[in-house]
Amino acid sequence: MVQIVKQYSSINDYISDTVNNPEVLYPDRCGNCGSQTFCLNGFYERKSEGRGKEVEVKNGELKIRRLKCSGDSCGTNYSILPSLVPPLRWYLWCMQQFIISLFLSGTSISKIVAHCAMSRSTITRWIRWAEDNWKLFCAELMPKHTWMSKLSNFTGFYSSLFKRWKLSQVMAQLHQMGLAVP
Asked: Which of 100, 138, 146, 164 has the highest CB neighbour count under 10 A?
């Protein structure tokens, strides 16, 4: 299944489009066969309860719209994720940004763990992911955002980035550029 990330400022906007205007979710063309025709193919549920204040979903379940290519014998399935929901991750981008921001401000991992209801391994994994990928993200974004050329370290990159954008917006941009974002 191919995942497409669409930019949304709220989950409610995404839910409204899935119900009232699903054609805005369709990709321009199928990445497999080039067809421009799709049919709705149901939903799958993502849990979101307790994973970020930006989620306003009943019972913590968000229905992710699925599409199927109608091209000749193609049948490629697509899932359309709102940008606030990270692919293959349990917590929302806003929670990850909060944790990374605490770490950047000098808060120790022990204090972050005490402040947040998450495991130490999750928090450590997110910080390690941010440290491991900042140069790649900067290199991908720099051609469109020249101010990044002055950023020379992990702390400066994310501090500057978070002053301008939410992490969900950055990850949606990187996804649209073809970078596989976890």
From this structure: 100
SS3 120: helix
The more confidently predicted of residues 169 and 152 is 169
End of a domain among 82, 109, 138?
A: 82
**Does 104 share its domain with 62?**
no
Tokens representing 45 are 């549920």
Determine the structural domain holding residue 107 and report its residue range: 93-176
Q: Which positions ≥6 away from 138 have C-beta within 8 Å?
A: 148, 151, 157
Q: The pTM is what?
A: 0.73
The sign of the dihedral angle between the CA atoms of 56, 58, 60, 64 is negative
pLDDT digits (tens, 9 = 90+) for 124-143: 999 999 999 888 888 888 88
162 domain residue, yes or no:
yes
